[in-house]
Amino acid sequence: MELLQVPTYNTDSLKDESTSFLYKKRLDEKLGEDNFESTEECYQHLIKCIHQAAKEALGEKTLRNNTKPFYYWNEEIGQLLKEKDRNT
After folding, report:
1. For the whole prediction, is pTM greater than 0.85?
2. How many CB atoms lie within 10 A of CB 14?
């Protein structure tokens, strides 16, 4: 089974009014086509448009695979790592 990789977009930038406006404008431009032969074709077009508009307006986040998720991290672990680095 092939795993689908979904890009992660910088959605925090939607808080900015100009970025939000740009995303909506790009999405409106891309959704112009409306002659589809099937629901699946319409769905695929919609998904493609959403991803293209998000990539253009918001940009993609780069995720580092070599780090632990933030919920594993706390101040105590940070101190332990600093001590370990000093001792090696």
Report:
1. no
2. 16
Cα separations in angstroms, 85 against 78, 79, 80, 88: 11, 10, 9, 5
Q: In this predicted model, what pLDDT tens digit does every residue of 49-75 receive, in sequence order?
A: 998 999 999 888 766 655 555 555 677
For the chain, give every domain's residue range: 11-87
Amino acid identity for residue 16 in this structure: D
- Residue 48, token pair as written in the block: 């493609």
DSSP, res 33: -
pLDDT tens, position by position, 4-55? 566 788 888 889 999 999 999 999 988 886 788 889 888 889 989 998 999 9
57 CB burial (10 A radius; 0-12, 13-18, 19+):
buried
Q: Which one, of 64, 23, 27, 67, lies nearest residue 45 by Cα?
A: 27
**Residue 2 Cα distances to 5, 51, 59, angstroms:** 9, 20, 25
